[in-house]
Amino acid sequence: MIQRAWFADGPDGRAVEAFTLSSDGGLRVTAINHGCIITSILAPDRQGVPGEVVLGHDDLEGYLRSKTYFGALVGRYANRIRGGRFSLDGVPYQLTINEGRHHLHGGTCGFDSRWWSAEEVRSAQGDAVVFSRTSPDGEEGYPGTLKVRVAYQVTPANELRIGYEAAADAATIVNLTQHSYFDLSAGRARDVLDHLLAIHAEAFTPIDADGIPTGEIQIVQGTPFDFREPRRIGERIDAPVEQLAHVGGYDHNWVLRPGGTGVRLAAMLADPESGRTLEVLTTEPGLQFYSGNKLDGRARGRGRQYGFRAGLCLETQRFPNGPNEPRFPPAILRPGELFRSTTVFRFGAL
């Protein structure tokens, strides 16, 4: 089922519309065509009572003012690129700088800040809304014209399936992800430290003081980054470890276990109090776990001030700074190729 409604007049005068997808199992997802932002996800607890499990603002103005990236599609290259610089086929490129000395989430006006056209698609596998736009050559410094399609689908199994596709007329780099902040307690708890998290990864990519990978790949065993079995997020988040001190908690990329060509389980999240669970499945090689360390109460919505660690992100991705690290999975898209990526957020209850 799809409901379509006016949300706001956009900054360029075009209408921003809200699309609500729902399943018979009680999952309800709302997204708008400004930044493909997911403004709401209602998921049932163990008693079947729906609750708001993502952080969000009350109106479009809140999303325009904030740089938390609540619910946004981020790109053309998600996460950080050192100095905003990379070379492709021997040609150097300079991207816009929007986080200190570096490039973050596509730049000052990335995909999260753009208006997208939208199309409704109905099927027995679950209704979907497909967002599309063309990113022109040179936008935020990226080479090549890039045509992008992003599909949000809600299935009868209480899944939000996200499918990304992109094609370019010149060699470029692509890394797309969804930046929702999850709180499975639906606002009952002040922070997410009591959530249980498991990440299916044997290694992670250490970072420097600017939050950018050093190029190393480190085994998680014996470190606070070992989530191979479910662990309480707050158990080791403040351990006296340099990697945690760099960013005030977790904001790192995990190297997911390889396996096949389809989606595979990357992470599991649970709130013991409400019983809500979330499984993350993806075709991508990396997962960024961000523990909301920069939330400081200035972002508001739904009668809440989103304070320190009020929500967490599980961003499926190519690796941060990947274009500058030969050991990392490739993120180059060439003419005639099609970038495809799938991520599934599967909601349930214990």
Please describe what this structure looks like.
The protein is mainly beta and 350 residues long. The chain has one domain: Beta-galactosidase, Chain A, domain 5, CATH 2.70.98.10. Helices cover 3% and strands 40% of the residues. The strands form 8 sheets. Strands 11-12-13-14-29-23-22-17-20 form a 9-stranded antiparallel sheet, with no helix packed on it. Strand 11 and strand 12 form a beta hairpin. The radius of gyration is 19 Å and the shape is globular. The mean pLDDT is 97.
What is the count of distinct domains? 1
Indicate the overall shape. Answer: globular
Count of beta strands: 29
Q: What's the story with the biggest beta sheet?
A: 9 strands, antiparallel
Counting helices, strands and paired strands, the structural category is mainly beta
Cα separation of the termini: 26 Å
Number of helices: 2
CATH class: Mainly Beta
Beta-strand fraction estimate: 35-45%
Fraction of residues in helix: under 10%
What name does CATH use for the topology? Answer: Beta-galactosidase, Chain A, domain 5
- Unreliable sequence segments: none
